[in-house]
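hi!! sorry for the late reply, been swamped w classes. u asked for the two structures so here they r. pasted raw, havent cleaned anything up. first the sequence of the first protein and right below it the tokens
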Amino acid sequence: MDAQTEPFRAVPAEVRPYLAELVGRTHAVCGPRLAGVVAVGSLALGDYRHGRSDVDVTVLVEGPPPAAVLRELAAALDHRRLPCPAAGLELVVYPAEFARVPSGEAGYLLDLNTGAQLPGRTAFDPAGAPSFWYVIDRSVAHQSGIALYGPPAPEVIAAPGPAELYPAIRASVREHDDGEGHLADNRVLNGCRSVAYCRTGRWSAKRDAARQVAAAEEEFRPLVEAAVRSFERPRAAALPLPGPQVRSFLAWVRARVDESAAAVGA
């Protein structure tokens, strides 16, 4: 395997050709402005499930580039022109200088969601948008991101500090507590991941975090194990979970996050 394909060994075989083409198209559009392409999310944490997981990618550009370049990139990576073999592509473009500094802001230049199982989204202005997803993704990227192009992820993406990260985790739990637009299993497993982070200071794959919580919290073990069984099925075949138990679990998660935030002064 040559130097150009070596980075892709770290991602599942099912998405390697797609990611190689994505990097090639991104470089063709951005040219010398391109500072990095990093696989994040389940790819970075080693828990990608083909047919269930999204492909999450962070792109870093110097500049920032003209708006026309960002529109061209969104068009080049649209599922209709570059079919995504995963459930969908969630791609975020940041100014390289923004990503190098810890921040609690969304800060993106382009937020693109596209794919067979994702509602389409192409946004160029983060004003007024919730920032928590982006803050958490950058924290995961700094810890475990896979550099598909450019320097190692920790060199180009700063880790948000506790003052930025814990409010983002709280907001994530509130979002999943509301439940709108989220599968029940994902609500539970994201809660497990938040608790595991609070206890260890590291991001875990959802199923690893679920095992930690199930082993330590007998009260919630049946719910968490049911969420894992559901997560191992395709999205369209996800299992229903009892709403009151999910809400009770997420209330417990919120309390654990608040305790951890208070302990670090966040």
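now the second protein. again sequence first, tokens right under
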Amino acid sequence: MRIAGKTALVTGGTDGIGLEIARQLNAKGANVVVVGRDPGRLAAAKSEGFATIEADMSTKPGCDRVVDEIGGAPLDLLVNNAGMGGPRDLVNDFDLDLTDRAIFLNLNAPMHLIAAFLPILRERPEAAIVNVTSGLAIAPSVAGVYCATKAGLRSFTQALRHQLRDSRITVIEALPPVVETRMTAENPHKKMSASACAAEIVKAIETGKKEAYIGATKLLRIVSEVSPATARRIMIRY
């Protein structure tokens, strides 16, 4: 895809990987709309020249707000990046309210936006949908709810890609490793920078690469193909 002149919508676009994707798309000439829920970060994004939409996408009304704000305007690129962790302790402190929010934000929200914007995307000369999953979609860690949502989004992405195979829409799955963001602040493992991760995702958009394995997930992919059991034993410790 030629990014210059395209209109892009980036969810979770005021922080972390999403903000870096927005910046890099903007640098390549795209018109970028970012979605977030923190007023301060939205104001900062607006000061960088981005159009902004304030919405809590862990709820259906939040998704509806995004759809209403875009309306029928042309849209060439949808980046479903917004995500959150769920409960890690599934035995002693299984927070079901947090679980429901994580499932909606990580899995339901991308489906809602795709369903709403697919007619617009199909009208464009070229378009792309990017679903940001995780290396944990291949082999889970102890963060069971988060992993389940990302594995679900991976399966959905593969099915969507097949059904859109004869269209002008490229369906891309981006699988980041552990990235330096607020969500991973307490993670002790080595982390990739958000800007480096975003650069790989933007490159996949430009080249039409359908699966973007980023950083350490490239090795995880190889291990999982050779021995899925070994990949599971390694990742369940994370």
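hope this helps!! also noticed smth abt the second:
The chain has one domain: 7-235.
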